[in-house]
Amino acid sequence: MLNSLYYFIHEHRYEVSGQRKLKHYFPVSQPKPALPKSEVRPDKDTYIVGLDETIVDVVANVSDQFLNTFSIQKGLSNLVDADTASAIYDELTAQNSISDHFAGGTIGNTIHNYSVLADDKSVLLGVMSANITLGSPAYHYICHTSSKVDMNHLQGVAGDIGRGIALITPDGERTFAIALGTWTSLNTEHIPENIIAGAAAPGNLCLPFTPSG
Questions:
Q1: pLDDT tens readout for residues 121-135
Q2: What is the CATH number of the domain that holds 194?
Q3: Residue 101: what pLDDT?
Q4: What is this structure's pTM?
């Protein structure tokens, strides 16, 4: 007879004077609703799509001596290689100087903010570290990006994604050490035409420079 019941009644009794017993109702005969899919469906979903360099922003407080140690020109944006970026980051971590991590990139920020404010799906195209470890740039990027952002079309690559490290000295001056990571490894196979064609609003990014200048 239980299969013919619309509700299954589970009773909880409380030994509290004057309190009525509570009944919790659980439907057992209705079909379960389909759970929403995280991956965007171009023929069914409304979404925006963007192509960006995946870069994690790091904010840290440092001394002038720290800048001199890594030959970083104060007050400027300094392009550094991956090894230098890792050495800077490791030293900042050792000194407990890092105050914040953010998912960076103009388009990446736009997509994230759209998904947060609209509570709706978006698609990010670009590259992502194939091997993500705790504390890595890719780890912090994903941790600080909305779950509504579909990353299923990112291209997995060896090595780290980009890092933009903002170094703030006691006088308030901001200096940047920027490593582009593996952005230039992106290939056309990971820029799906159907995802772009089905988007309500596409976005893109043109980099003004490459690691080779």
A1: 999 999 999 999 998
A2: 3.40.1190.20
A3: 93
A4: 0.72
Asked if residue 180 belongs to a domain, the reply is yes
DSSP 1-38: -GGG-SEEEEEE----TTPPPEEEEEESSSPPPPPPPS
- Does residue 206 carry a pLDDT above 50? no
**Does residue 65 sit within a domain?**
yes
Closest CA to 108 of 158, 59, 150, 76: 150
Domain that holds residue 128: 48-203
- 108 in a domain, yes or no? yes
As for how many domains the chain has, the answer is 1
For the segment 95-109, what is each residue's pLDDT rounded down to a tens digit? 999 999 999 888 888
CA distance from start to end of the chain: 76
Extract the runs of DSSP E, i.e. beta strands, from 109-172.
122-125, 127-129, 149-150, 155-157, 162-168
Tell whether 188 is covered by a domain. yes
